[in-house]
Amino acid sequence: MVLVARDAARLEATAAELGGQYGIAVETITADLSERDDMHRVAERLEDASRPVDILINNAGFGLHSTALNPAEVDVNTRAIEVMCVAVFILSGAAARAMKARGRGQIITVASSSSSIFSGNYSAIKAWARTFSNSLALELSGTGVTATALLPGWVRTEFHERAGINASKLPGIVWIDSGKLVRTALDDAAKGRFESVPDWKWKVAMFLADHGPRTLTRWFSKKLTNSRKH
């Protein structure tokens, strides 16, 4: 297993935990995926034929509450695009080349249910990730390599706390267990599915957002965006 993150101490702690619990070798790469040099360094590791990576999971990201109307928030938005778009493009391309040469492999890109609504730049970024993953899947058809876009809703992780999102008032039904999400995503990727939605309730929500009246989606998106301003 190869883990990539910015926090070297946390990386090493996680590697030690996984290695001790499962008896596996864990390699760590300290990298900031908003920096191009770090992106290319990880891409080189993905293309190392002597140490093949069978599954790439594009999971780096962070939440956004910013607006294009605030010039002070330009930097955080451009950084988000680097981490969740440019890095996904570069690393997926490197992995796809190496996997195609071997005739097997899986690429999972964590997009979001937000990709089907209009909630600021985060929705736009995740819509790009979803579209890119689907396009890559088509390009890789017949090669033995698959690309799957993961489209989760609200998952019980530290993401919301770190993003400053108060999720305490959300009803229990909207939440997805992280273990269930991971199992479903890996199973869908192994089956070569283009998209993975890890729970029936979010499958329904995504269907309505994708195929329902756009006026309804815009209304919901506006309500959600306004609720996060308070």
TrEMBL record:
Name of the molecule in the record: SDR family NAD(P)-dependent oxidoreductase
Organism of provenance: Tessaracoccus lubricantis
Signal peptide (from-to): none
Classification via InterPro entries: NAD(P)-bd_dom_sf, SDR, SDR_fam
Highest taxon in the source lineage: Bacteria
Family: Belongs to the short-chain dehydrogenases/reductases (SDR) family.
UniProt cross-references to CDD domains, sorted A to Z: SDR_c
